[in-house]
Write a structure and sequence with these properties.
Helix content is about 35%, strand content about 25%. The chain has about 600 residues and is α+β, with helices and mostly antiparallel strands. β21 and β22 form a beta hairpin.
């Protein structure tokens, strides 16, 4: 047999070169001819230790990229950081964030308004400061040193961390008694903005934190900081949009006696939309009810909603019929779309403005309600006997398409009926069919027909509103009233100026029965002027007069002319032209509205200002 190879042969080098990264090496035969005489083994255990640690570190960072930042909520993102780090990096994690950051703002004094936002660990009984508590920390604590320098601070042995202990010796003693022995504090920074501080505590592993742990904690915090900043900026935009939305919605309901109204507005979690509602008193004790929904979310939708609501109120003041009002709103939406570039072929954009709307006008003197809708869900109607229906209104196109007609429908609403108007966020949900939602609305209304409008609103939201709404919800419930017949007086007289005195005398007698003698002088002057004008310019047709005793005294004169009167400045030498000026001085409000066969000139007197 050949002689054995010397001990310093090249086999060990060959085996070392072939060793895998884990630190173990396969046996390599010693070179030489003939039978194998021995084996050479070479290994480096520390190489395997570092490789496993590096692999676990990469796995944790990869997991952090998917687990942190799943929502646009600052508090939830901070908790995701803690849940990712426990238990693979730390046994306990606390995150402290300034109160202004939680509100979506940048903190002017991040060290002075820290609030405990997250406490998470392997046990629930560890005596950390509770969530929600404001922290007042000494400059010598690791937290404050991290915020001051912008760098992580490692305290391998908390028993010797005098700055940490000096903050609250009793509290530090409690934590040490729970075997918490090592700490890393890392500032949460993004774009140079301080967002808070994260603290990683170790208790089960007896080895103290080292530099590698500090680097890993810093990388986790850096990823979380970016997500927290995104959530903060989203929160700020969401808060601004919500503030704008709420400022544009009615802050209070106007005084009127036609309906008793309750309302709710529930914003979407993911972004404020353009839902709105309104209650608009009209002449003759009538009232307009309106709900609408602008397409999209955010500041643009809220601003468009404000413009639409203002326009709708102005059009309502013109006493337009519901279908005519929707036509004017449709034209407005087309102009808004054109102004914002929606019709620019070169820009490659489509319509960016659109909305749905439902407009209803209820008259308590006739108990009739005229409604029209533009692509909006139909209203629900609860009659006094408990019957629930969804009136078959013509759907109409959504606002913003342009050139398409709208139709009105009239329904009779007995006294104490409930008219329920809502936006599509109440019934449309990705997890629920619309027909099932309408059935649930039907069942909710029929369950207790005697509920007040406030209770009805709450019952509807409890039954149908999603736990996490993806769209805004606007809800309006109106219980109708009827004007008593003894509060209405009406007369019809031929187009004869000599008969004006007859209607004046009848009106004065009626005011006496109502106990409104103090208003008789002003009413007599106003009726003389309006009835005379109606006879003179009404085209020879009979003139009708109506008095309504409501919150105010309302005088209405109907004639067959479509020409609206206008007030003008009469010269000193003019014999006429002062009638409407007199009307405007006597009444607290006056105006004109058109009817299918003419017009109505109306005026209101305040009962306490005769």
């Amino acid at each position: 047999a050949p002689a054995p190879a010397p001990a310093h042969a090249h086999a060990p080098l060959h085996a070392h070169a072939a060793a895998p990264a884990s630190g173990s090496a396969p046996a390599a035969p010693a070179p030489g001819a003939g039978a194998v005489r021995g084996l050479v083994l070479v290994g480096e255990p520390e190489v395997g230790k570092y490789a496993v640690a590096a692999r676990r570190r990469l796995e944790l960072l990869a997991e952090a990229s998917t687990r942190i930042g799943t929502t646009l909520d600052v508090g939830r993102t901070a908790r995701e950081l803690a849940e990712t780090a426990v238990p693979r990096l730390a046994d306990f994690v606390t995150v402290d964030v300034p109160a202004s950051v939680l509100r979506g703002e940048e903190s002017n004094d991040p060290t002075g308004e820290l609030h405990r936002t997250v406490v998470h660990g392997i046990r629930d009984d560890c005596p950390f400061y509770p969530v929600g508590e404001r922290l007042v920390l000494r400059p010598t604590t690791p937290h404050m040193r991290s915020l001051a320098t912008g760098q992580p601070v490692l305290e391998p042995e908390l028993k010797a961390a005098f700055g940490w202990i000096a903050q609250d010796p009793d509290h530090a003693e409690l934590l040490l008694a729970h075997n918490i022995h090592s700490l890393i504090t890392v500032p949460l920074l993004s774009r140079g903005v301080v967002l808070g501080v994260a603290c990683f505590y170790r208790s089960r592993n007896p080895a103290p934190y080292g530099d590698d742990d500090r680097s890993l904690a810093q990388e986790l915090a850096a990823r979380a900081s970016l997500c927290i900043d995104n959530a903060r900026r989203y929160t700020r935009e969401h808060t601004l949009a919500l503030s704008l939305q709420r400022s544009l919605l009615p802050h209070g309901l106007p005084e009127q006696s036609a309906v008793e109204v309750a309302h709710r507005y529930l914003p979407a979690e993911s972004g404020v939309g353009g839902d709105w509602f309104d209650v608009i008193p009209l002449s003759g004790t009538r009232v307009a009810l309106l709900v609408g929904d602008v397409v999209g979310h955010g500041l643009h939708a809220a601003a468009t909603m404000g413009r639409l609501r203002t326009a709708a109120r102005n059009f309502a003041e013109l006493e337009l019929a519901p279908d005519e009002l929707l036509t004017h709103l449709d034209n407005l939406m087309v102009r808004l779309d054109r102004e914002e570039g929606g019709d620019d072929p070169a820009a490659g954009t489509t319509a960016i403005v659109g909305a749905t709307c439902l407009y209803a006008v209820y008259d308590p003197t006739t108990q009739r309600c005229t409604m029209a809708r533009a692509g909006h869900p139909p209203p629900a109607l609860l009659l006094p006997d408990g019957t629930v229906t969804f009136p078959d209104l013509p759907a109409g196109p959504p606002l913003g398409l342009g050139g398409l007609p709208f139709e009105s429908a009239e329904v009779h609403l007995p006294e104490n009926s409930r008219l329920v108007l809502y936006t599509d966020g109440l019934i449309e949900d990705r997890h629920r069919d619309i027909d099932l939602a309408l059935e649930e609305l039907h069942r909710t209304l029929a369950t207790d027909p005697g509920r007040s409008p406030e209770d009805t609103c709450q019952a509807i939201l409890d039954a149908l509103a999603p736990e996490h709404p993806a769209d805004d919800i606007a809800l309006l419930v109106a219980r109708t009233h009827a004007t008593p017949p003894d509060r209405i007086a009406a007369w019809e007289l031929p187009a004869d100026p000599a008969r004006v005195c007859d209607v004046r005398a009848a009106a004065m007698e009626q005011l006496g029965r109502w106990g409104l003698e103090e208003s008789s002088f002003a009413t007599e002057l106003l009726l003389s002027e309006l009835v005379t004008n109606g006879i003179r310019y009404g085209g020879g047709e009979p003139v009708r007069v109506r008095l309504i005793h409501d919150r105010t005294l309302i005088c209405e004169v109907y004639d067959a002319s479509n020409t609206a009167p206008r007030m003008r400045q009469a010269a000193n030498t003019d014999e006429g032209g002062r009638g409407l000026f007199l009307v405007a001085q006597l009444a607290q409000a006056w105006g004109t509205r058109y009817t299918p066969d003419g017009k109505v000139i109306w005026a209101e007197f305040a009962l306490d200002a005769a």
